[in-house]
Amino acid sequence: MRQGGTQAAANAMGVGQPLVSKLLTSLEKQLGFKLFERKRNQLAPTAEALLFHESVARLLDGYRDLGREADAIANTQRGNIVIAAQPIFCDTFLIGAIARFKKAHPDVTVRLLDVGLGELLRMISERSCDIGLGITLEAESYGANVKPLGRCEALCALPIEHPLNKPGAIPLPRIRHEAFVELPPASPLRTRVDYLMQTINVERNITAEMRTLHGVCSLVAEGTGIAIIDPIAELLIDHRRVATKPLIPTIEWEIALFAPDDRPPSNTAQAFSETLQQDIDMLKRNGMIS
After folding, report:
1. Given CB 3.0 to 4.6 Å as the disulfide criterion, which of 116, 134, 147, 277 pairs with 257?
2. CATH code, domain with 264
3. b/e per residue, 16-50, with b = 16+ CB within 10 A?
C-alpha cells in the first residue's frame, strides 16, 4: 500500500520481488477479492483493498495496545485491588498507605472496604477481596493465608484527670468498678476483655457502646468512661484530654495481612503489601507495635 509496486515493497522488506508477487497472489486467493490494479507500471489499491487495509491497521493497533496493557499489568501500573480492613486501620495509617500507592501506581483502581473481622474473613473465604488487614484474636479457625506484621498490646484509655492516671501499668482488678466505653459485643477485642474480666469475677459497667475505636476514644475524651483499646488508636487520641496506660496482664494480638489460601497474590496486591509494610515499620519505630 505504501510502496506502490512489488519491487519497491521487496526492497523495503529485504526479499526478492518474485516472493512478494507470490505472497500477494496467495493473499488475494485467500481473501476472495483483488487487491491491486496495475496502472502505468504501478499497483493501485482497489476499493476492497483500502477497506481491508483499514481493518488490518485497526487490528494491529489493537495488538500493540494489548502489548502495552500487558507491560503495564506486569509493572503493576494497571489493574485493580480490593482491600478489606478493620475500621481502626481505615481511620489511621491505611489512608496514607493508599495515597502513596496511588501516586506510584496512578492507573490502579483501589477499593477499600471498612469491615469487622468476621466480615473480613468471610470476604477472604469467598474470594471477594484481594487482601485483608485485621487482627489475629479470632482468625485461627479460618482458612486464610495469614502473614503477621506486628504484635500489639492493648492499652487502657482514660480521661487525663482520672485517678488511675499514675505511673506504671494498671492491673485489671483495679478497673472493676469503672464505667466502660466499649466496642459492640461481636468485637474480638471486647470478647477477649470480657473473658479476662470474667476470670477475675468482674461484671463490667458498660455505659456506652460505639462501632469504632474512633468513637470510643471520643467518648473517653468527654469523660464518659474508660476503655481498653488497640494501641493503633493512639493515632486518634487527643493526648491533652486522654491518657493511655499498659495493662496487667497484657492482652496481645498481631496485626496481619489475610489473603485467600488457594491462590498467590497478584503483582498489584504484592506491590500494595510492600507499600503497607513501610507504615508498619514506622509504627514499630514509634513504639506502637513490636
Report:
1. 147
2. 3.40.190.10
3. eeeebeeeeeeebeeeeeebbeeeeeebebeeebe
Position 2 pLDDT exceeds 80: no
Q: Which residue's C-alpha cell is 487482627?
A: 135
Q: In total, how many domains does the chain have?
A: 3
8 Å CB contact between 269 and 259:
yes
Give 123-167 pLDDT, tens digit per residue. Answer: 888 888 899 999 887 545 456 788 999 999 999 999 999 999 999
- Among 17-31, 45-59, 154-168, which range has the highest average pLDDT? 154-168
Q: Which domain holds residue 15?
A: 6-74
Q: Which of 233, 199, 232 is nearest to 219 (CA)?
A: 233
What count of residues does the chain have?
A: 290
Domain at 18, CATH number: 1.10.10.10
